[in-house]
Amino acid sequence: MTKAGGHLRLGVNVDHVATVRNARGGIHPDPVRAALMAAAAGADGITAHLREDRRHISDDDITRLMAELTVPLNLEMAATDEMLKIALRHRPHAVCLVPEKRSERTTEGGLDVAGGHNHLAPFVRELVGAGIRVSMFIEAEPRQLDAAKGIGAPVVELHTGSYCEHPPGPERERQLERLRAAAAHAAAMGLECHAGHGLGFDTVGPVAAISTLAELNIGHFLVGEAIFTGFAAAIGRMRTLMDEGRA
Length: 247
Ligand code: PXP
Description:
With 247 residues, the protein is an alpha/beta fold. It has one domain: TIM Barrel (Alpha-Beta Barrel), CATH 3.20.20.70. The protein has helices spanning 15-24, 31-40, 59-68, 81-90, 117-129, 142-151, 161-165, 170-188, 204-208, 220-229, 231-246, and strands at 9-13, 45-49, 73-77, 94-97, 133-138, 155-159, 192-196, 213-218. Strands 1-2-3-4-5-6-7-8 form an 8-stranded parallel β-barrel, surrounded by 7 helices. Helix 6 (142-151) links the parallel strand 5 and strand 6. The longest helix is centred in the C-terminal third of the chain and has 19 residues, at 170-188. The radius of gyration is 17 Å and the shape is globular. It starts with 8 loop residues before the first strand and ends with a helix. The mean pLDDT is 96. The structure holds pyridoxine-5'-phosphate. Pyridoxine-5'-phosphate (PXP) binds next to strand 8 and helix 10. Residues 13, 15, 49, 76, 96, 98, 106-107, 137, 157, 196-199, 217-221 line the site of pyridoxine-5'-phosphate.
């Protein structure tokens, strides 16, 4: 487990490089090339979400990421039999279990670990048994944290969407306080704690300051910002803001 207040890892999510590629159905821009560039620019790991409808990352992308990456791959996936087979075949460094609805534009809300224990427990058991570091993407709620601990997941990732979607002001502060409390609760239970969703240059600092967080996963903002400054520069700036937030 990462020491509190130590290096805060940056996982760069390359899903939306694949979104742009798929808009034309060809091979450009290649999310694997983007992942290699992200690693060279300071990403500690790469995250990719293989969705049931394959709307961005494809099966072949996962095969190539596994073959070509020199940093850890964090595979985001829904708890389905199909995805479990894929994860067990590839054995990525990490799997993050996320809720998935076909109609959503992005991952809305966290996984209901408390309500879905019986469905989720066998997935966690198999993945942990295969030596994969399993995390549960959850809302910053005590009962979800307790359920994640109870199900045997060593890691949780806190959904930062509600914090990011509010403009600066009391509601954003309230959401930040929820994240702080949840990160402290996770640490007290011995869970490694990550966070992500919707983070950008304006929102990352106060989250990075939460000393018990070990990793942030960031994608959409970085891919968007790459249009203006390039991917490496966007990642470098994010890294600097994370380091400043933590300091
Ligand atoms: N973490 C998880 C579990 C996610 O599902 C996502 C979105 O795929 C992210 C982090 C990254 O979110 P964003 O693309 O908004 O930075």
